[in-house]
Amino acid sequence: MTQIQNNQMVTELDIAGMSCGHCVSAVEKALRSVPGVDVVTVSLEEGKATVQGNAEQAAMLAAVAEEGYVATPRG
After folding, report:
1. Which residues lie below 8 Å from residue 24, measured CB to CB, with a gap of 6+?
2. Which one, 17, 57, 60, 74, has the greatest CB density within 10 A?
3. What are the DSSP calls for 2-14, one per residue?
4. What is the value of pTM for the model shown?
5. What SS3 class is residue 26?
6. What domain of life is recorded for the organism (predicted)?
7. pLDDT tens-place values along the chain, 75 residues long
């Protein structure tokens, strides 16, 4: 799901395959590497990532996939 808050897009992604803190770190790092991403929050318990910024959704999904996880738009 993508919303606009404070003139920034907020995208929620379901992340499959995370099982530990290292997984969370890997997904955060991958998403932060995408141009246009400003803030990333990843929740292992909820299996989701919340991304603020004006990044391309396809680029975010690809970055997570490169780390070996599956990201899908939430909502």
Report:
1. 18, 42, 43, 44
2. 60
3. EEEETTEEEEEEE
4. 0.91
5. helix
6. Bacteria
7. 667 766 779 999 999 999 999 999 999 999 999 999 999 999 999 999 999 999 999 999 999 999 999 999 997
Q: What is the pLDDT of residues 25-41, one digit of tens each?
A: 999 999 999 999 999 99
Long-range contacts from 1-7, C-beta under 8 angstroms, 24+ separation: 1/73, 1/74, 1/75, 2/57, 2/73, 5/52
Structural domain containing residue 47: 2-73
> Token pair for residue 57?
């959704």
The domain tally of the chain equals 1
Average pLDDT of every residue of the chain: 94
